[in-house]
Amino acid sequence: MKKVAVTGTTGFLGKALVHLLTENQQVEVISMCRNVSHSSEMKLDLSSHFDVAQELHQRQVDVVIHCAARAHILDDDAKSPLEEYRKVNTSATIELAKQAVAAGVKRFIFISSAKVNGEVSAASHPLSETVLEAPTDPYALSKYEAELALTQIANESGMEVVIIRPPLVYGPEVKANFAALMKLSRLGLPLPFGAINNKRSLISLDNLCDVISLCITHPAAANQTFLVSDDEDASTTQLLTELIKAYGARTLLVPIPVAFLKILLKIVGKPMIAERLFGNLQFDIRHIKQTLNWAPPYSFEQGIAKTVKDSKKK
Length: 314
What we know:
Mean pLDDT: 94
Low-confidence stretches: none
Strand order of the largest sheet: 3-2-1-4-5-6-9
Shape: globular
Strand content: 5-15%
CATH topology of the domain at 2-173 and 202-231 and 281-297: Rossmann fold
Radius of gyration: 20 Å
Number of helices: 11
CATH architecture of the domain at 2-173 and 202-231 and 281-297: 3-Layer(aba) Sandwich
Structural class: alpha/beta
Order of helices and strands: EHEEHEHEHEEHEHEHHHHH
Number of strands: 9
CATH class of the domain at 2-173 and 202-231 and 281-297: Alpha Beta
Largest sheet: 7 strands, parallel
């Protein structure tokens, strides 16, 4: 049984991943977190100096799954957002990987971001794993710089590195923009989003956890970079329609022209929201499907239904 150490286990992804791995009993899971409460945990605070090499070695950890990160913030008010992202997402990631090498860890799985590939795709032309130019967004750049360093560490050390780039992740306890759309969909009021024909890639929490789990042991995953998604790209109108159906709400989607909505959002100073609501952002996941013979086990509809069902319990 492989021993797997997971960072960010109190977060949205890390918590779900530990639950899946523990439930399946495929591996022995060690949670790496700030506050240790029992023997299956290891102390790790990425915002300060840390040294976990000896403990990783003593516990004979085979794989480190690095989920922890300074999350993307739409309106970041930090004095230097890039510097703050780099501290955790780049520098701490590199240091953790180096300590993993020193401890004899065989594989390091890094949860990066599809934002590394860009913020927009041309219609019917999904983005692939190749990065044509470094991202300008501070969060995405910090992740990209970590990817480059990890690739170098893998080449120099022999520790296998797997890089996974998810797009927007949704599921139980999702927050931020997706949570806002969920709230809108159940209001029962008319919404002006009935004529949006864009396409955006998403991935459910369950599908992302499934692919990470596969990458723990699959030999072909070694030193690969993978874009992942539900493989069912949806328009904003389709997403809202699915949410409304799952809630059983009476919300009406009114087909207002997108051009008018863009002008309106620009007037109120929200052009970035307009891009996320109306723009295309698709990712090509053929590489992981062919290399690992992976297909998302849960459909987009199932993912939305589970997310909504969980929110009703709150």
